[in-house]
């Protein structure tokens, strides 16, 4: 039963992080990254699906949900390896994940004939969004997992801190 409650809290955290992702950074994300990214897509319409259907939007949101779920799951298990409060720990982990995301984008940018500027704007967008979601995670995680944090014992992985 405890596992089900923890899993439910975890899903609640990921839903909250998705809401944060799509609301909080939007005022500055739109002009600084989304608009140029959309312009790159529309200037190369043969490479990109620029006419999203409902299924395309659902798929896109699902991919984002899975990304934040993966980051949150990783944070759930390794946050003890980082020094600082939960916001600081979360920013450290999300910074690592941003580097991974940027590296994957750069690989695609280098290997495929898609317009390069799309991937550059995708990296800029991630640099604007990841810290906001990281702060949200750092603020919400200790509230949602207070009981689990109080019962935690140091694992071997937690003895090495960053």
Runs with pLDDT <50, length 5+? none
Task: Give the proportion of residues in helices.
Answer: over 70%
Number of strands: 0
Structural class: mainly alpha
Largest β-sheet summary: none
Q: What average pLDDT do the residues reach?
A: 89
The Cα radius of gyration reads 18 Å
Instruction: Please give the domain count.
Output: 1
Beta-strand share of residues: under 5%
The geometry reads as elongated
Description:
With 162 residues, this protein is mainly α. It has one domain (2-159). The chain is built from six helices and no strands. It has helices at 2-23, 26-43, 54-78, 86-111, 116-144, 146-151. Helix 1 (2-23) packs across helix 5 (116-144), helix 2 packs antiparallel against helix 5 and helix 4 (86-111) runs antiparallel to helix 5. The radius of gyration is 18 Å and the shape is elongated. The relative contact order is 0.16. The mean pLDDT is 89.
Give a brief description:
This protein has 162 residues and is an all-alpha fold. It has six helices and no strands.
Note the main attributes of this structure:
162 residues; mainly alpha; 78% helix; elongated
Annotate the secondary structure layout.
Layout: H1 2-23, H2 26-43, H3 54-78, H4 86-111, H5 116-144, H6 146-151
Helix pairs in contact: 1-3, 1-5, 2-5, 4-5
